[in-house]
Amino acid sequence: MNSDLLDILCCPISHAPLTPLTQQDIEALNERIAAGTLRYHDGSAVETPLTEGLITADRQYAYRIDDGIPNMLPGQAIELKDKA
Q1: Is residue 33 part of a domain?
Q2: For residue 69, is it within any domain?
Q3: What residue numbers bound the domain in which 63 lies?
Q4: b/e per residue 1-14 (b: at least 16 CB within 10 A)
Q5: What pLDDT is attached to residue 75?
């Protein structure tokens, strides 16, 4: 991802800065996707494995990057923490 674009992007929900997902992060998230335990912010299940993405500095949300385009829609934020 272009570093200039990354510098201006932030989470539309928490306004936290974003960094690229590591390969280790992607593998761990894909395991959770396969297990059916990840949800988007809109409540729907995450069904498609990640190949690339961004994560908030507080590790609360991840955003997929598909075909080089980050999906920054709030409803499509992948929630990484269980809701209390």
Answers
A1: yes
A2: yes
A3: 3-79
A4: eeeeeeeeeebeee
A5: 97
- Count CB neighbours of 35 within 10 A: 8
Closest CA to 2 of 77, 70, 50: 70
Rg (CA), the chain: 12
Rounded CA gap, 46 and 3, in Å?
27
Q: Hey, what are 82's tokens?
A: 């269980």
d(CA 62, CA 49): 13
Encode pLDDT of 40-59 as tens digits.
999 999 999 999 999 999 99
The model carries a pTM of 0.90
The tally of domains found in the chain comes to 1
